[in-house]
Amino acid sequence: MKIIAVIPARYEASRFPAKLMQMLGEKTVITTTYQNVMETGLFDEVFVATDSEIIFDEIVKHGGKAVMTGQHETGSDRIAEAVQNIDCDIVINVQGDEPFLKLEPLKQLIQVFYKDENQEISLASLKIKLTEKEEIENPNNVKVITDNNGFALYFSRSVIPFHREISYNAGYFKHIGVYAFRKHALIQFSKLEMKPLEISEKIECIRYLEYGMKIKMIETNFIGVGIDTPEDLEKARNLLSN
């Protein structure tokens, strides 16, 4: 299989505009993410997909590969446009605002497709256990619930599951926005109309569930920093300095 990584990079993020061009140590957030993905050695090629000339120039200036796209509602739609003419089998979507992703979780995602002999899985993604009440209730943390085989049942910014039985704790998991797609599933995704649940939650992977596709979730203990707010950026800077 030919495996590539694509980093969707939107300049005008709604909660924190220009966050990808903020400095993280001596490099911008997007350059840090790109170089860390390259250094894993897992991919035949790595691209940044963006509608911003500022981000495009930033990546090219540092010797990276970038693809200009049109404007899109979701990162997956942006990646679908970027890879249409790229020869590949599996596309790993690494969020531009997740600069500290490590080697092992990416390897786990890739292994899903080597084990999927019947090619039933459209995409795979990561989840991590949440234990702190503040993190569980934070709507910026997308929660996921799965079936007994690890396939996603639903994603939400709300607290799921709801514990009606207070004495029983089913556990909470945060969705980490790193996806591994079969290319044909990604292209199909981009042609599907958004449905009410995705529009309501603003969570793009719900579109796959609404159209009956299978999402395999892999539990990880990877702890990174997704940069959604200026406070997250400070956390990332502290993590880097330590």
**What would you report as the Rg, rounded to the nearest angstrom?**
17 Å
Q: DSSP strand (E) fraction?
A: 15-25%
Class by alpha and beta content:
alpha/beta
Low-confidence stretches: none
Number of DSSP helices?
9
Estimate the global geometry from the Cα principal axes: globular
- N-to-C span: 38 Å
Share in helix: 25-40%
Mean pLDDT: 92
Q: Can you list the strand order of the major beta sheet? A: 5-4-1-6-10-7-11
Task: Annotate the secondary structure layout.
Layout: E1 3-9, E2 23-24, E3 27-28, H1 29-39, E4 45-50, H2 53-61, E5 66-68, H3 75-83, E6 90-93, H4 103-115, E7 123-130, H5 133-137, E8 143-146, E9 152-156, E10 172-182, H6 183-190, H7 196-201, H8 206-210, E11 215-219, H9 230-241
Parallel strand pairs: 1-4, 1-6, 4-5, 7-11
Antiparallel strand pairs: 2-3, 6-10, 7-10, 8-9
Helix pairs in contact: 3-6
